[in-house]
Amino acid sequence: MKLNAKSGREPLFHITKRTDVPKWLAWTIRVGAVVVALLIGAIVTGGLTGGSGFGLFFKDLFLGVFGTPRRILNFFQNTAMMLIIALALAPAFKMKFWNIGAEGQVLMGGLGCVVCIQYLGGKIPEGALIFIMFLVSMAFGVGWTVIPAIFKAQWNTNETLFTLMMNYIAMQLVAVCIYIWVPSGSAVLGVLPYGHFPQIGGYNYILNIILVTVIMAVLFVYFRFSKHGYELTVVGESVNTAKYVGINVKRVIIRTMILSGVLCGFAGLLLVAGTNYTLATDSVQGRGFTAILVAWLGKFNPFLMGGTSLLYVFIDQGSTQTATDLGLGGYYADIITGIFFFLVIACEFFINYKIKFRSFRKKQGDVLPETPVENTEKSAEEVTA
Amino acid sequence: MKKKILALVLIVALVASLAIALTACEPTGDKNTLIFGPEDADITFGLICLHDENSTYDKNFIDAARAVAESEQVRVIVRTNVPEDASCYEAAADLADQGCDIVFADSFGHEDHVIRAAKEFPNVQFAHATGTKAHTEGVANYHNAFASIYEGRYLAGIVAGYKLAEMYGNGDGAAVSAANAKIGYVGAFPYAEVVSGYTSFFLGVRSIVPNATMTVRYTSSWYDPEAEENTAKMLIESDGCKLISQHADSMGAPDACKAAAGIPNVTYNISTKDSCGDSYLVGSKINWAVYYAYIINCVRNNAEIAADWTGTLANDAVQLLEFGNTVSEAAKAAVEEAKAALKAGTLEVFDLDTFTITIDKTNSDPTKWKNGNALVEGMAADAKTGSGKLVSYMADVHTDAAFTGDTQVVHDGYFAESEYRSAPYFDLRIDGITEK
Asked: Which residue of B15, B80, B189 is in closest CB contact with A324?
């Protein structure tokens, strides 16, 4: 332990990695964090409404998600859309390639679909159109991921900035295309008459939900059992190790980003052909960014990510309903989901790390105080003194 | 470790007991909810808004709904922040699921999604503001509504003209120099609703200040406070505009005018007299309560609802907002006079004698033509260019993707806005207005 050069004392606190947290405890803490997040959300709601909102928060949260069959279906649809984007990000993040451009990559996938509909819609059979949309959306998605991947692999550019900037280019491209396609100048494309996914059992979105579930399972197998999955994990852990064992790092980076792009493009297809039947610059609704948190919290394990997506969408959709019922305005749902993310991420920190405060009792060696948290105030006083 | 778990359990227990204690409080009523009106009302009215009450445009719809809940004794449920995609269809269907008899959406891009819901719920009446498709779509329970807001903007323009005359012409509009007769306009998107609005406002100003010219800058968003404020600043500082009006929905432009002393502002939808003081001049709005009451009573009495409804000054659907502190009595009198003339039909906002246009069809790409569907006096039908008094305009009244002109909307010496369809179709760029 390094001592402070001036005072000769230990630093006020230091952080050490925990290895001893049993699984059951870690999960108890996680569940606890979610519960606490909900309680804080309820307290905030109560504060905003003068007390009455506290109980209504829980009621509206559940009614907003499970109140009607349509809301339940929407819940799974929104989860599927969040999950597919999180799944698209996971391979890159596992490789420690910080792709924060999913918003633009998905939008490009959507743009690919709309290009097909605009120029081929009505001229070829609907089935063929959807097949072409499938291919083109993936090509567009791959285009938007493989450019930063090549730059990263060849010239080691910063992929975070690169992918972020590509988002804005994608949005402007969509804006320009809509400007060209809509001569009235209203910038509203409207519902396109072609290229709709078929309904299953008379319901919208069922196909989206099935497809995303299948991709979740496939990606799990890919990560867990394939050589590719192993290689990208090794590259993520240590590029030098990967090189040493003979992995072609450049190839893995580009290959993995192509996979990411395929999935982002596919998410764009689901958004246009399976959900909105139209496109606007804000069609992805920020999911490209939220999905980063969702993927991270799911530890890039496809099934866990399914769980975190469900949880996030539950809180988001439920708090949107609360905002409507209690008149809390547009930012309310963001506050509630913000609280949720904050606590869940904070709890991950405390599961993985331990904060050790300086020992004040004159004991031999490095013995920790038994209740370290209680000492915080005292130690702060000492520092100022 | 045990102590930590104990601490955690204690915290959870503490918060939980707090929760139970607070839950015991009875709800304190509807004071700030987005659900208005009596619970046992015979009619439930669902309102879908693109943004929330921070947007002046949506606030106007929500305020009218609150008023109608009281006056017509209906239950109103408002859904805010509904984007123009499948979320709008889901919101409309969800409101129908909740037992709404009428579902009304407020933004142009909601239209197709509302039509989708209308087809699915034939027993619920769906209505949509600013939309264009109800009269051609053939969906019996889908309706469009808008108002001749260009009349309101024209009246607001008269007030603005008087202001410029007082500030720069000693009360005489004709004495205002060209440099001082510059007005700026913050628009959302370059399409008919906005173009019709700024042109009528401009013609109102020019009826008092003949030298007036206008610069229009677009934000490409309906609600973007920062962009609107910056655009207004640019109009004031770079373009030298002496007065600003806007057709975008935040407080951006009014705030910019307040900050730049001596720049009056003409608003849309809400008065900013309280927050902006003397920089607020006047404004206009559509009073949606009139249409809400109409459609509610149609449903109540099982009467047929017009596929396309246009509110006017005469039926109080178009209103001029309160006058600002600095508006002169002369201006108020002139507004009353013009209002009476508009109501009587002796004055037309788009009187062909009050403006000229320039036509340019030289580009090989028809989408880049300027005023391509128009003809001016003495111009051959196949001429590429022309300039002067408008004599013919084929408007895209029956909406199609290619935006083809299908209806002659010029007759009896004026451009007949909102006569063939409630939503505006005046999208001519007249001389004296520059778009940037």
From this structure: B80
Q: What are phi and psi of B382, to 5 degrees?
A: -100, 10
CA distance A281 to B174: 46
**Per-residue pLDDT tens over the stretch A8-62:** 666 788 888 888 888 888 889 999 999 999 999 999 998 888 777 888 889 889 9
Residues from chain A contacting residue B32 (CB–CB below 8 Å): 49, 326-328
- Does residue B16 sit at the A interface (CB-CB below 8 Å)? yes
**Alpha helices by DSSP H, chain A:** 23-49, 53-66, 69-94, 102-120, 126-155, 159-181, 206-225, 227-237, 239-244, 249-271, 287-297, 302-326, 332-352, 375-384
Report ipTM for this prediction: 0.84
Contact A65, A75 (CB under 8 A): yes
Q: Which residue, among B351, B321, B350, B423, has the nearest Cα to B63 in the 3D structure?
A: B321
pLDDT of residue A16: 85
What pTM value is reported for the model?
Answer: 0.86
- Contact between A272 and A278 under an 8 Å Cβ cutoff? The reply is yes
Domains observed in chain B: 35-148+288-311 (3.40.50.2300), 149-284+327-344 (3.40.50.2300), 352-416 (no CATH)
Q: What's residue A383's pLDDT? A: 43
What is the distance between the terminal CA atoms of chain A, rounded to a whole angstrom? 23
CATH class of A72-323: mainly alpha
Please report, for residues A124, A235, A385, the alpha-carbon distance to residue A314 in angstroms, rounded to integers and kept in the order given. Answer: 40, 34, 48
Strands across the sheet containing B433-435 = B318-320, B280-286, B265-268, B243-247, B182-187, B213-218, B433-435
* Residue B157: C-alpha distances to residues B63, B83, B316 (Å): 25, 32, 19
Across the interface, of B23, B32, B111, the residue whose CB is closest to A54 is: B23
pLDDT digits (tens, 9 = 90+) for B152-185: 999 999 999 999 999 999 889 899 999 999 999 9
CA distance A182 to chain B (A): 7
For CATH 1.10.3470, the residue range(s) in chain A are 72-323
Q: Which of residues 190-229 of B touch A (CB under 8 A)?
A: 190-193, 220
User: What is the distance between the alpha carbons of residues A282 and A273, in angstroms, rounded to a whole number?
Assistant: 16
